[in-house]
Write a structure and sequence with these properties.
Length: about 350
């Protein structure tokens, strides 16, 4: 079958994107999905209303420039509108960045494990992938990242807080790193989860962006704003880079409903941040409880927690959660549990306690 159409040979080598599983059902138990780092809270009520209103006119194309959203984001971030690039999620911004920088003969450097799209996007461009292993505590290895850069490198992807492990990048780590990166090489700071970060030394992407013209920010309304299903995010970039990004992003990729929802949610950003900090407080308590149960848990700054487990133990843990109708995410080296409803987290706490006891016994 593979000779039937002229598809790229490289497709056979693409790493798969494995979406978070839906929960299995178990008699008498409400199922919970803690496998995709979604916000377990719905968007704010006025955002839901705005979405319903936008649904009244599905026959019309959206505003291709997302004019109001771009204007509001620019005012909110105190940048020029030419520096804001809307997209269908941060994913589209990341994809566009790879489209404007990577091709065969170039390389891309990124931490690993990190967001699964990075190697997929690199493969799509035929670029050389240079994953740099994280440190044992789940943080970026900045000397390792610097060592991986050479004349072929056109893009560096950083993730703060890192998905799946959780730690954020500190301001001083990023500054030290940027000083080592050639000024013409683009660095993207993927801040999909930055609203959940509470550690004192976490890098402020906007402050860093103002210092380094080759730094691009990728942000999203999918996580803290609870709009993952609508697909809306944005990039903040030097106008030259932003213009190139707009060249490769499909027109109309941000739907009308997504635009009005993002505008409304941004206008209530303070409330969104309060809710994000509540999620963060739950995360910190959950993290501590898993540690108390005997598990090794990284310091998370996102809306999820990473548990280090060998591969057999990770399978056993995932299955034990599934028996409780809770879907979590298993990856190489551990499992990631998204912060969700108390009932769901309590079931995972219980799994953790009996899991460790059975390993000790
Ligand atoms: C680190 C990271 N970046 C980007 C994204 C993409 O988010 P979206 O395309 O929904 O904005 C995700 C989604 O899970 C993520 O974990």
């Amino acid at each position: 079958m593979s000779n039937r159409f002229r598809l790229r040979d490289a497709l056979a080598e693409f790493p798969p994107y494995v979406p978070g599983k839906p929960p299995t059902t178990a008699p008498g138990l409400k199922p919970y999905k803690l496998s995709s780092n979604e916000n377990h809270l719905p968007p704010l009520p006025s955002v839901v209303e705005a979405i319903a209103d936008a649904g009244q006119a599905p026959a019309n194309y959206p505003d291709p420039k997302a004019t109001k959203l771009v204007a509001d984001l620019a005012a909110h971030l105190d940048v020029d509108q030419s520096e804001v690039v809307p997209g269908a999620g941060a994913s589209e911004i990341l994809s566009a960045l790879t489209n404007i920088t990577l091709e065969a003969g170039t390389s891309v450097v990124y931490p690993w494990p990190s967001f699964e799209m990075y190697p997929i996007l690199a493969s799509a461009r035929g670029a050389e992938k240079r994953p740099v292993p994280l440190l044992d505590d789940g943080r970026h290895d900045f000397p390792g990242l610097v060592a991986a850069i050479d004349d072929t490198t056109r893009l560096i992807m950083l993730c703060s807080p890192n998905n799946p492990t959780g730690p954020s990048i500190s301001a001083s780590e990023l500054e030290g790193f940027m000083a080592e990166v050639p000024a013409e090489v683009i660095v993207v700071l993927d801040e999909a989860y930055f609203e959940f970060a509470t550690a004192a030394e976490v890098v402020d992407g906007m402050a860093a962006y103002r210092k380094f013209p080759n730094l691009v920010l990728a942000r999203t309304f999918s996580k803290a704003h609870g709009l993952a299903g609508l697909r809306v995010g944005f990039g903040v970039a030097d106008p030259t880079i932003a213009t190139a990004l707009r060249q490769v992003i499909a027109p109309f990729s941000v739907t009308s409903a997504a635009q009005v929802a993002a505008v409304e949610s941004l206008s209530r950003n303070d409330e969104v941040l309060v809710r994000a900090k509540e999620v963060a407080a739950t995360r910190d308590q959950f993290e501590q409880d898993l540690r108390d149960a005997g598990l090794t848990v990284a310091d998370s700054q996102g809306n999820y927690v990473w548990v280090n487990l060998d591969d057999d133990a990770a399978i056993a843990f995932e299955e034990a959660c599934a028996r409780q109708a809770v879907a979590i995410r298993r990856l190489s080296g551990g499992v990631r549990v998204s912060i969700g409803a108390d009932e769901a987290l309590d079931r995972v706490r219980e799994v953790a306690r009996s899991f460790e006891q059975s390993r000790i016994a």
